[in-house]
Amino acid sequence: xxxxxxxxxxxxxxxxxxxxxxxxxSNQRKHKISLPGxxxxxxxxxxxxxxxxxxxxxxxxxxxEMFVMDGTVRPGILVLINDADWELEGGDLYELKENDNFFFxxxxxxx
Amino acid sequence: MEQDEDVDMTxxxxxxxxxxxxxNSSGDHDSKxxxxxxxxxxxxxxxxxxxxxxxxxxxxxxxxxxxxEIRQEEKMNRKERAAREQLEQEIIxxxxxxxxxQLNIEEKEMLLMDKAISVLPSLPYFHHHIISKxxxxxxxxxxxxxxxxxxxxxxxxxxxESVIERLKSDLTRMExxxxxxxxxxxxxxxxxxxxxxxxxxxxxxxPSRKAGKAEDQDSRPSYRQSKYQKYGRQMCxxxxxxxxxxxxxxxxxxxxxxxxxxxxxxxxxxxxxxxTLGLVDGDTVETSNLHRQTLYLEEDVGxxxxxxxxxxxxQMNSRIHYERYDYRLTPxxxxxxxxxxxxxxxxxxxxxxxxxxxxxxxxxxKPLVHASALGTMGQFMVLNNPPSLxxxxxxxxPCYRCIFPKPMRPENSRSCAEAGVLGPVVGVMGIxxxxxxxxxxxxxxxxxxxxxxxAYSKEPFKMLNLNRKNQNCxxxxxxxxxxxxxxxxxxxxxxxxxxxxxxxxxxxxxxRMSVRDCKRLMDSKPQEHVLVDVRDxxxxxxxxxxxxxxxxxxxxxxxxxxxxGALGQELDFQPTLGKNPTVHFICRYGNDSRLALRQILxxxxxxxxxxxxxxxxxxxMGMDVIGGYDAWRKEIDPWLPDY
Lengths: 111, 643
Ligand SMILES: [Zn+2]
Prior knowledge:
heterodimer, A: 111 residues, mainly beta, Ubiquitin-like (UB roll), two-stranded antiparallel ribbon, 1 helix, 30% strand, B: 643 residues, alpha/beta, Rossmann fold, 6-stranded mixed sheet, 25 helices, 14 strands, 11% strand, binds zinc ion, isopeptide bond (chain A)
């Protein structure tokens, strides 16, 4: 299945950060973003592309390692795509669809 | 009793009356002999004598028979009296037994019932016998010697039949578990035993005794009655019920960590009447705990958390058993401790303990209720439910490592001390933990789930489907490498696994100074030194060193160069500063300030120019203040808020 993008070749998504990740993204939890429907190599944009895109374009903090590690989200971050565990949706390889909701949550240890 | 003795009196007096009548009739015959002596008379005499002899013999026999009857009757009465006395004795013993029962808790009942169950073969007869006796004593119809009450006996047998039917289905289930080598076997065996105990106990309940005696009983509520009163409101819930309450009474729950999660969880579980509550923590109560750790009061500061919690919980429910473990749990100790419990609650606050508690729950095959909280957010999971097995189980729940195979680095993980936490947020999570523990005990087949709570979100509770059992999990899959022996050997270093501590050692010694030295510099040459506080604005507003200015470390992280720009702009408004001031850095404890200075020294601007040139001034980068705001408060200005 190819990535569903709008006429301008862009995909409109909603991303949400919680569990402290919002601090890396201008201390704002919800973001509406628009990104290219295909990646650097012209392939349909995947979740992996989204993570790279967020890191380069939306994240102001210099500490990139707080969000990514080895080309994917760092350990301790759970990702939900439209409220479903992304592991069950193909993880990195999931192809973006218009109006998808991505939920990034950093696990907590406090008690 | 009185009436029965009256009947006995009449029975003993009647035989003597009969004897007197017999001797009178023999006197009449003697007077007839002296009236005539002829042959006929002699023959008649002879015939009469014979007749008399026969009569006498008959009378003697009748008398003997009567005597025998009297003896039999007396014997019966003695038997009756003995039986009655025995019954009275039994009643007294029953009464004493009940009083003992009131003093001792359920162990005694269990022991007695176990004894009763061990004599199962004679149970139907015993049951019938004691019920009949009791009925007869109450003036109703009961069994007379060997003549049973057939309908009562039928009822007895039917009850036993239903127990046996249930035992058969239990056996089928246990056989299946045995064939699979499942650890469920043990649990089902316990469940079956428990059901049998409850059913037999219900069945053995005796009918009420005489009205007077029943009244006596009601005026003094029994132990059982007080228990109904205590747990009635939850027992009448269909989700709990009588059986559920018995399960709770038998359950053993271990709470690891008595902080913001452990306090409310322990409180609710104690009140719900779990059998045993284990409490583990090595910490003492601190003032900064009081806003969220609900078992402690102001007067408890400095006291052991476990011992203080124990005292408070006993005031909530004194009839359950508590185990106190006044130490910090280690991976080596965890398996042996978990063995003794049915459900484990992870209420700790460090990533390393999260991992080893999960591993220990897996090797001991215990369901794990896991929660955490920070700031305005909480997370909740039920892990290892149903518990994992070495031999594999298609339906087993994920463990912590299934969901988080790799730990996150310590710099990504903040503690409550650093990030703060709201009391009700962590309280909500602790209470959800208590609820889930109750569900696990009363309805063990609940499915694993994951929930997050965001107090300030439009959708505060969010359920996530995280049922991701990792088939390659190092802890709970068939390919597992973490074993009980390994855990207990202490050779697994969980702190190292979790990345150890953050490296704050990023400066040279000459780049750091004490609070006293800093104070001296600021006082002696106020135009030449300026102090920059890198805490966030909220903390800065609570309290700060006089004259310091705020530049949150998050701003520096976002871009050290932009941060320097913001700093220059801010300092430009300081009229008292000289031409070439030196900038020093302070934070709460002297950790973040080092990282902040390192970031700034490594920024492009400082690397290229060595200084920050802004407006009319040239700023030099100075030193980090050892111990930060906290040390300043302790050594220089005790009036600063100790937040
Ligand atoms: Zn696992």
